[in-house]
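Retro notes, structure queue

What went well: the backlog is down to a handful. What didn't: a couple of records were mislabeled last round, so from now on we paste the full input next to the output in the thread. Example, using Trypco2 family protein from Streptomyces doudnae:
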Amino acid sequence: MIELSTVIRDLRAELERAVAAAEGAALRFELQTIELEMSVTLERSAQAGAKVRFWVVDTNAEASVASASTQRIRLALQPALTGSETTYIHGRAEDHEE
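Corresponding output:
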Protein backbone atom coordinates (compact mmCIF):
# COMPACT_ATOMS: atom_id res chain seq x y z
CA MET A 1 0.00 0.00 0.00
CA ILE A 2 1.07 3.58 -0.61
CA GLU A 3 -0.15 6.83 0.96
CA LEU A 4 -2.57 8.90 -1.11
CA SER A 5 -0.33 11.95 -0.71
CA THR A 6 2.53 9.99 -2.30
CA VAL A 7 0.36 9.05 -5.28
CA ILE A 8 -0.52 12.71 -5.87
CA ARG A 9 3.11 13.83 -5.40
CA ASP A 10 4.30 11.22 -7.90
CA LEU A 11 1.59 12.24 -10.39
CA ARG A 12 2.75 15.86 -10.10
CA ALA A 13 6.35 14.79 -10.78
CA GLU A 14 5.29 12.74 -13.83
CA LEU A 15 3.38 15.70 -15.26
CA GLU A 16 6.37 17.99 -14.72
CA ARG A 17 8.56 15.47 -16.59
CA ALA A 18 6.02 15.37 -19.45
CA VAL A 19 6.12 19.16 -19.74
CA ALA A 20 9.94 19.15 -19.83
CA ALA A 21 10.17 16.18 -22.24
CA ALA A 22 7.97 17.90 -24.84
CA GLU A 23 10.28 20.90 -25.22
CA GLY A 24 10.37 22.01 -28.85
CA ALA A 25 7.49 19.77 -29.92
CA ALA A 26 5.10 21.23 -32.48
CA LEU A 27 2.13 19.27 -31.16
CA ARG A 28 0.84 20.37 -27.76
CA PHE A 29 -1.75 18.76 -25.53
CA GLU A 30 -3.81 20.98 -23.26
CA LEU A 31 -3.83 19.52 -19.78
CA GLN A 32 -7.37 19.49 -18.44
CA THR A 33 -9.04 17.68 -15.57
CA ILE A 34 -7.25 14.55 -14.37
CA GLU A 35 -9.48 11.88 -12.88
CA LEU A 36 -8.06 9.24 -10.58
CA GLU A 37 -10.05 6.28 -9.32
CA MET A 38 -8.49 4.04 -6.71
CA SER A 39 -9.16 1.71 -3.82
CA VAL A 40 -8.17 3.09 -0.45
CA THR A 41 -8.16 1.98 3.16
CA LEU A 42 -8.51 4.34 6.06
CA GLU A 43 -6.11 4.22 9.00
CA ARG A 44 -6.72 6.06 12.23
CA SER A 45 -4.36 5.79 15.16
CA ALA A 46 -5.70 5.47 18.70
CA GLN A 47 -3.19 8.07 19.93
CA ALA A 48 -4.44 11.51 20.96
CA GLY A 49 -4.10 14.05 18.14
CA ALA A 50 -3.39 11.35 15.56
CA LYS A 51 -4.31 12.03 11.95
CA VAL A 52 -6.37 9.94 9.59
CA ARG A 53 -4.34 8.51 6.70
CA PHE A 54 -5.53 7.17 3.37
CA TRP A 55 -3.61 4.27 1.83
CA VAL A 56 -3.97 3.42 -1.87
CA VAL A 57 -4.36 -0.32 -2.32
CA ASP A 58 -2.46 -2.22 -5.00
CA THR A 59 -4.85 -4.38 -7.02
CA ASN A 60 -2.83 -7.47 -6.06
CA ALA A 61 -3.18 -6.67 -2.35
CA GLU A 62 -6.87 -5.72 -2.42
CA ALA A 63 -8.10 -9.15 -1.30
CA SER A 64 -5.78 -9.17 1.71
CA VAL A 65 -7.10 -5.83 3.04
CA ALA A 66 -10.78 -6.45 2.39
CA SER A 67 -11.36 -6.73 6.13
CA ALA A 68 -9.84 -3.25 6.58
CA SER A 69 -12.84 -1.54 4.97
CA THR A 70 -11.54 -0.87 1.48
CA GLN A 71 -13.37 1.94 -0.30
CA ARG A 72 -13.20 3.20 -3.88
CA ILE A 73 -12.72 6.94 -4.34
CA ARG A 74 -12.55 9.15 -7.39
CA LEU A 75 -10.58 12.39 -7.39
CA ALA A 76 -10.81 15.08 -10.07
CA LEU A 77 -7.71 17.29 -10.11
CA GLN A 78 -7.42 20.48 -12.17
CA PRO A 79 -3.71 21.06 -12.87
CA ALA A 80 -2.29 24.57 -13.26
CA LEU A 81 1.18 26.01 -13.59
CA THR A 82 2.01 28.96 -11.37
CA GLY A 83 0.95 32.18 -13.09
CA SER A 84 -0.76 30.43 -16.02
CA GLU A 85 -4.43 30.02 -16.86
CA THR A 86 -3.88 27.06 -19.21
CA THR A 87 -1.41 24.23 -18.71
CA TYR A 88 0.17 22.54 -21.72
CA ILE A 89 2.29 19.42 -21.95
CA HIS A 90 4.93 21.28 -23.93
CA GLY A 91 8.07 23.23 -23.15
CA ARG A 92 9.52 23.91 -19.71
CA ALA A 93 7.34 24.90 -16.79
CA GLU A 94 9.33 28.16 -16.50
CA ASP A 95 8.22 29.15 -20.05
CA HIS A 96 4.61 29.36 -18.86
CA GLU A 97 5.23 31.43 -15.74
CA GLU A 98 4.57 35.17 -15.91
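Agreed that this is the format going forward. Reviewer comment attached to the example: Strands lie at 2-3, 29-31, 34-44, 52-56, 71-77, 87-89.
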